[in-house]
């Protein structure tokens, strides 16, 4: 599947915390306006026009003509000779996928995992039928690498590209993660036939008592380590240079569906579980085996976490049909899961009851809640849009209804309790 890039209206109006009507919503939690408004403020700065642009083209704030912006740049009205990074993000942020979908490829099994590379040049898709395909976006979405995976249990559960895009790791519901060299010229990669798919055994730890499956795996920003979450309620860290498992954390009271490094330092790890909790782990102080903090707000299990990369904020997708935005400065030292108090429901077999959407966690610590998409049957992912092109202005997510939903982070205003229609459905 692929989507063309379409232009928004030529005259673009940027609302300042106004409510509108719509079927989906962004809810801003109560004490946000008093304490932690810098995430929205920084997003506006990184994805909005600079003051010099407003002054140079003499337009009213909030009403911007793209033609005037481009002509002002060409005659160098700002005196800088170019757009700033925020100006570029503003322009690019107005071009989101609106047309399509276009037919690009067809496989004989379901795709459960997909994600762009960090620079947006590659797209990785993992299929249940033991296949992973890497598409070259800049070359018309041709297949860059066709990987035939090995030793799978049921499906490929996650994939991750190394920061230098030379290696790919993939996991399934087994304690083995495989690593593949995707930097070579060969298009086809057959496990241990045309390529070596090294198996990294995560069960080689003194605390491991039985076999388990891995739901989530991520490279560190330097490509030296892997972090993984599993259905034995644990987090694992593997040192690729030393070629050994270096850490196992009994982290939750249920499956750990998702993990992520918080930033480039690699010290902080985020985790999300079916016990409804998001946890923050500081590897510099794990002597007690306790998390650095816990964040509550989801009513049902967490399917995915994506870090903003600043070491303090991230988003999570939940089986309660909501994405939540978090700031770890609001975390508590410990918290109880509300899973026991939440209505019973299994996302694998039935749709989410409509009346459950009105329920709220009694101690919700999230900054904002984004609703409109559907989380059913599989671990639906969610991501921030790229910082280099949009200033992380958007959150995008898959959905059970076969659409991709895009939420505007900035609609959540510190002056409003609720802003509706915060998404674009593709």
TrEMBL record:
Record SUPFAM superfamilies: WD40 repeat-like
Name this protein carries in UniProt: LEC14B homolog
Keyword terms of this UniProt record: Repeat, WD repeat
WD repeat boundaries on the chain: 214-248, 249-282, 295-329
GO cellular component: Cul4-RING E3 ubiquitin ligase complex
Residue ranges, annotated region (Disordered): 1-25
Single GO biological process annotation from the record: proteasome-mediated ubiquitin-dependent protein catabolic process
One Pfam short name: WD40
């Amino acid at each position: 599947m692929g989507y063309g890039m379409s232009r928004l209206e030529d005259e673009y109006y940027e609302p300042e915390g106004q409510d509108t009507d719509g079927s989906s919503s962004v809810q801003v939690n109560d004490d946000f306006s008093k304490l932690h408004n810098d995430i929205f403020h920084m997003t506006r700065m990184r994805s909005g026009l600079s003051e010099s642009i407003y002054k140079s083209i003499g337009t009213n704030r909030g009403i911007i003509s793209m033609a005037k912006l481009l002509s002002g740049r060409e005659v160098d009205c700002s005196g800088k000779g170019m757009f700033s990074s925020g100006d570029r993000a503003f322009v690019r942020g107005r071009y989101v996928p609106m047309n399509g979908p276009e037919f690009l490829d067809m496989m004989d099994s379901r795709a459960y995992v997909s994600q762009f590379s960090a620079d947006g040049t590659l797209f990785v898709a993992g299929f249940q039928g033991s296949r992973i395909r890497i598409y070259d976006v800049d070359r018309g979405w041709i297949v860059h690498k066709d990987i035939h995976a090995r030793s799978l249990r049921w499906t490929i559960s996650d994939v991750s590209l190394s920061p230098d895009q030379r290696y790919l790791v993939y996991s399934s519901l087994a304690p083995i993660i495989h690593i593949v060299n995707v930097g070579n010229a060969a298009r086809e990669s057959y496990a241990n036939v045309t390529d070596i798919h090294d198996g990294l055994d995560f069960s080689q730890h003194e605390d491991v008592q039985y076999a388990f499956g891995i739901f989530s795996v991520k490279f560190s920003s330097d490509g030296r380590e892997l972090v993984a979450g599993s259905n034995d309620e644990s987090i694992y860290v593997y040192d690729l240079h030393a070629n050994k498992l270096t850490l196992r954390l009994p982290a939750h009271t249920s499956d750990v569906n998702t993990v992520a490094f918080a930033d480039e330092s690699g010290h902080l790890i985020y985790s999300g579980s079916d016990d409804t909790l998001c946890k923050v782990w500081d590897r510099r102080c794990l002597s007690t085996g306790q998390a650095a903090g816990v964040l509550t707000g989801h009513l049902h299990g967490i399917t995915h976490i994506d870090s903003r990369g600043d070491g303090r904020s991230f988003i999570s997708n939940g089986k309660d049909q909501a994405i939540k935005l978090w700031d770890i400065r609001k975390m508590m030292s410990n918290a109880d899961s509300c899973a026991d108090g939440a209505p019973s429901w299994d996302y694998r077999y039935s749709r989410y009851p409509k009346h459950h959407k009105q329920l709220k966690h009694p101690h919700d610590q999230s900054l904002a809640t984004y609703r409109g998409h559907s989380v059913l049957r599989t671990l639906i992912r969610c991501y921030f849009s790229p910082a280099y092109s949009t200033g992380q202005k958007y959150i995008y997510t898959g959905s059970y209804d076969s659409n991709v939903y895009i939420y505007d982070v900035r609609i959540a205003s510190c002056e409003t309790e609720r802003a509706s229609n915060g998404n674009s459905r593709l």
